[in-house]
Amino acid sequence: MKNPICITGMHRSGTSMVSRILNICGMYLGPENKMMPPGGDNPKGFWENMDIVNVNGRILKMFGGSWSAPPYIPYGWWTTPDAESFAESARKITEDLRSHGIWGFKDPRACFTLPFWRALYPDIFTIICLRDPLAVVRSLMKRDKNLQEEVGVFLWFLYNKAILENTLPENSLIFHYNFFTGNPKIGTTLLVKKLGWNVDDKFIEEACSSIHPQLNHHDDEFVSYIKKEGKEEDRLYCDALRLYQEMCENTV
Fold it and tell me: Which residues pair with 66 in a beta bridge?
């Protein structure tokens, strides 16, 4: 597969992990000086091209939102004159990326901006990273002490609902976080196989070694938590659970 690849999903769902795996296996993400530096919440690196993140952030901001307050983006906006300045920036940014055989980018914000990128690259292929909602929320709350649990669940719901609306089964794959942390070699091998890549075993091994065992910080089950906390009648939690179960049924 030579299509450009977009790796996305809700924050804290394993997008950085999957990006690094594919980077080691041959996908070009951009020059090193354009990669977002590691942070306390991601010491092994984010593997995000800061120029692409900037474009996505500007799109969200234009509609009055941000990563933590996703806006409504009108359908078809990416075909209007308002989108041209963003498209011009994106073309310049991806000029270097396109000169490589296999290229792509990672950004959770692409859950909302993917139609814009597809307008530029109709053959773009999306890898959706899925993780248990409670594990995501707990990870977010560890990073942001002021985040309320309900807000985290709502963000998880918005991101995953958006990416399902913005992709089709024929141009996307859903991979669960636990698939890689449970057995890195099986997960990595299947991922590159699904993409149709021929990757030498030494790169598979290197990719597997990039998956640190401590990445699996939280093992909580959202369904059992809902029952334990008596949230069976809470619409937000129930909607998130239904969406999670639907996505789980369609994972690789």
Answer: 69
Domain count, the chain: 1
pLDDT digits (tens, 9 = 90+) for 38-56: 776 676 778 999 999 999 9
Q: What is the CATH number of the domain that holds 180?
A: 3.40.50.300
pTM for the whole thing? 0.94
C-alpha span between 229 and 71 (Å, rounded):
30
What are the residues facing 129 on neighbouring strands?
A: 9, 175
Number of other residues whose CB lies within 10 A of the CB of residue 162: 20
Q: Report the C-alpha gap between 244 and 17 in whole angstroms.
A: 20
Q: Is the pLDDT of residue 74 over 60?
A: yes
**Spatial separation of the C-alpha atoms in residues 99 and 94, rounded to whole Å:** 9
pLDDT category, 162, cuts 50, 70, 90? very high
What is the residue range of 179's domain?
A: 5-249
Q: Residue 212: which residues within 8 A CB-CB, separation 6 or more?
A: 44
Spell out the residues 6+ positions from residue 155 whose beta carbon is closer than 8 angstroms to its own: 10, 11, 68, 70, 140
